[in-house]
Design a protein that fits this description.
By secondary structure, the protein is mainly α. It has 3 domains: 48-190, Alpha Horseshoe (Leucine-rich Repeat Variant); 224-320; 321-388, no CATH class. It has helices at residues 12-16, 41-58, 64-80, 84-104, 107-124, 128-146, 152-169, 173-187, 206-220, 225-235, 248-268, 277-288, 297-316, 336-349, 353-359, 361-366, 377-383, 387-409, 412-415; strands spanning 322-326, 329-333. Strands 1-2 form a two-stranded antiparallel sheet. Helix 5 (107-124) runs antiparallel to helix 6 (128-146). The N and C termini lie far apart (83 Å). 34% of the residues are buried.
């Protein structure tokens, strides 16, 4: 082939083409165009793979900018496609490239490499191959997370990556506990923040503490019950101190972690009793009704919304069920454990989350969705309304909205109420 340096970045156009040999039997209904020209899937697949090979080669380039751009392009491809067979053949090359970029790269490159490592494990699922990847990358990630001289952004990305990769691949309970201890050592420093006068746990480190806490709580959801009990006893009395943090995201992370710990505690022990319940609910209620003028309106709105749910979880053992739609399927998020898991993977997959929920065997197992729903092109086409029908529906809806708004805006409509 030609020089990979000339390969164009992975684009949305590439992502929109349904050409995966691994799962060519199904696709998002929106991807089928009516009366559109037929696509040569084999040629398009070859073109896509050629581009991806070029990006893999560019991860070894001398230029840091080129390496980072290649990592970002691979991330975009991995989040929007199922590329199992392609990756399987090149997993060791990809692992070596990621390891090199994390070890020798600067902050932005390390972040991109850690993000790609997450997506690599999501693509491979929980198998022997993923375990090999984690055996190589796990020690490197831990080293960066614990390295006080590394940039906060790189440590934050590596903490998230460490939690997600361990969640996906590890069957070794010792490795699970070791990873959790590494993350625990990071976020526990946030407990000392109010008492710290040396600036060790400054606001600068808060983003790292949040990432470590969220990665840790994800791993706690797959721990044996006796370990869950130990961790609840260790942290349930310390976490409320984080509710007073100046950082909104830390307050929210602490609140949601508390809700999840209460959920797990009540699952392990139906008669679970928390001694400082009154003090905790008072704190949560204050956050759920916070009206401090020095805080931004958007922040207050977000905080009140989250802490209303947290308060209901702690006081009433209630959870507001959410529904997620993807293709012809629906998934109900009905507990804090499921919500935390969903939010974590949504964060790394972005707009590709729906596609992976439809197609990715590993994610479907995590959320107990069963095997992928196989739909052929004809079925998908019948599910999609025609362009003309959609136009008629939109026109009718537009007219109805216009009428309703005109009625509200017409001052004469209010006159009758006064006579």
């Amino acid at each position: 082939g030609g020089q990979p340096r000339n390969v164009q970045p992975f684009s949305d156009e590439d992502a929109s083409i349904e050409t995966m040999s691994h799962c060519s039997g199904f696709s998002d209904p929106a991807s089928f165009t009516e009366d559109g020209p037929e696509v040569d899937e084999e040629a398009t697949q070859e073109d896509l793979e050629y581009k991806l090979k070029g990006f893999i080669d560019l991860t070894l380039d001398k230029s840091a900018k080129t390496r980072q751009a290649a990592l970002e392009s691979l991330k975009s491809a991995f989040s929007s496609k199922i590329l199992y067979e392609f990756i399987m053949e090149r997993r060791m090359t990809l692992t070596d490239s990621i390891e090199r970029c994390i070890k020798k790269g600067k902050s932005d490159e390390q972040c991109a490499a850690a993000g790609l490592a997450c997506l690599l494990c999501v693509q491979m699922g929980s198998g022997i191959e993923s375990e090999e990847i984690f055996k190589t990358l796990g020690p490197v990630l831990k080293k960066i997370v614990c390295d006080g001289t590394a940039s906060i952004q790189a440590r934050q990305a590596c903490a998230t990556c460490l939690g997600i990769c361990c969640f996906i691949v590890t069957d070794d309970i010792t490795e699970l506990y070791s990873t959790m201890e590494c993350l625990e050592n990071i976020f526990m420093k946030a407990y000392q923040r109010d008492r710290d006068t040396n600036g060790v746990s400054s606001t600068h480190n808060t983003v790292l503490h949040i990432s470590a806490l969220l990665a840790w709580i994800l791993l706690l959801t797959i721990c044996p019950m006796n370990e869950v009990k130990k961790k609840i006893e260790m942290h349930l009395h310390k976490l409320p101190s984080l509710l007073s943090c100046d950082d909104l995201n830390m307050r929210i992370a602490a609140g949601e972690t508390l809700a999840l710990l209460f959920e797990l505690a009540r699952e392990t022990d139906a008669d679970f009793f928390y001694e400082d319940m009154d003090l905790l609910t008072e704190k949560l209620r204050a956050l759920a009704t916070d009206g401090n003028k020095h805080r931004a309106k958007v922040d207050k709105r977000k905080q009140r919304s989250v802490f209303r749910d947290v308060l209901r979880a702690v006081e009433e053992r209630d959870f507001p069920t959410e529904m997620v739609k993807f293709g012809p399927e629906r998934m109900y998020i009905d507990c804090w454990v499921k919500k935390q898991t969903y939010e974590t993977f949504k964060e790394i997959l972005g707009s590709g989350m729906q596609y992976h929920l439809q197609s990715n065997d590993f994610l479907r197992n995590v959320f107990e969705l069963g095997p992928p729903v196989m739909l052929d092109a004809a079925t998908l086409k019948t599910m999609k309304i025609s362009r003309f029908e959609r136009h008629l529906y939109n026109s009718a809806a537009f007219k109805a909205r216009t009428k309703a708004r005109s009625k509200c805006r017409d001052k004469r409509a209010d006159v009758g109420e006064f006579f």
